[in-house]
Specification:
Blueprint lengths: L1 E2 L2 E2 L1 E5 L4 E5 L5 E6 L15 H5 L5 E6 L11 H16 L3 E7 L1 H8 L8 E5 L17 H4 L19 E7 L5 H4 L8 E6 L6 H7 L3 H10 L2 H19 L6
Parallel strand pairs: 5-6, 5-7, 7-8, 8-9, 9-10
Antiparallel strand pairs: 1-2, 3-4, 4-6
């Protein structure tokens, strides 16, 4: 498929895993995991095409979980490992970044436990969809109820001390059951956006900074990303309540 002159071609459709690839010119490979998509889609489509590729510069492997299993479908991770290994050889990449939104963000955070990843960018990821781990969040029940066995109970079980993690959540109360369970770690930067629910990428796009946030995270420029988020957070709050400037 061609998306505004960016070539994205299908690689695998196994029933458990669907992937697409983009060949860029950099030495970076971005693993871009899809969220759940919409109910009428048999499989979530590739997401963040322009941001993940940085307008075509980076190599990107788009990965979708048609069963919406949060990586719990039997054999799914093994298939992902093989796809990533194969595409990494094609690209000759020396650096790998994982990213995604919601279920995709959850998958991106787990990815370093089964393949080499230097940087993770996760928009509004779940901490867990296991009913015993997060009993106070009933969203996505139609998909969660179809998971027969939870091989992956929570993100926390799969975080490490070497990968640089960037997690961005909304401040809305509905996000609290997932957001507030994330552990504090030196290598995990956790940003909370005001006036934002689960729609973090959409809010960043509305603010005009989604490409910048994605690019800075992929490049590992944590300080500049922090300054950008602080500046736009302040601007957002002032727009909502001008009295906060006094």
């Amino acid at each position: 498929m061609a998306t505004d002159q960016l070539e994205i071609w299908p690689r695998l459709d196994s029933g458990k895993l669907r992937t697409w690839g983009h060949r860029g010119t950099s030495d970076t490979l971005v693993l871009c995991f899809s969220g759940i998509g919409t109910v009428d889609q048999d499989c979530p489509p590739p997401e963040f095409i322009r941001s993940a590729t940085c307008d075509g510069i980076h190599n990107v492997l788009f990965l979708a979980d048609p069963q919406r299993s949060w990586l719990n479908a039997p054999g799914l991770i093994a298939q992902m490992q093989e796809e990533i290994r194969s595409f990494r050889l094609i690209c000759g990449s020396t650096r790998t970044v994982a990213m995604g939104h919601s279920m995709g963000g959850f998958s991106a955070l787990v990815a370093p436990s089964f393949t080499n990843v230097h940087q993770v960018l996760a928009f509004a990821p779940q901490y867990s969809v296991h009913p015993e781990v997060v009993p106070d969040d009933h969203r996505w029940a139609n998909w969660r109820g179809r998971i027969g066995h939870f091989a992956i109970r929570s993100v926390a079980d799969h975080l490490n001390g070497e990968t640089a993690y960037c997690v961005i959540h909304g401040r809305h109360g509905r996000e609290a059951p997932q957001r507030d369970r994330f552990p504090r770690m030196k290598n995990l930067r956790h940003y909370v956006m005001p006036l934002t629910n689960h729609n973090v990428p959409q809010r960043l796009k509305t603010l005009g900074i989604l490409p910048q946030v994605t690019s800075l995270a992929i490049e590992g420029r944590a300080r500049k990303l922090l300054l950008l988020m602080k500046a736009r957070t302040k601007a957002t709050l002032l727009a909502a309540d001008p009295t906060q400037s006094t």
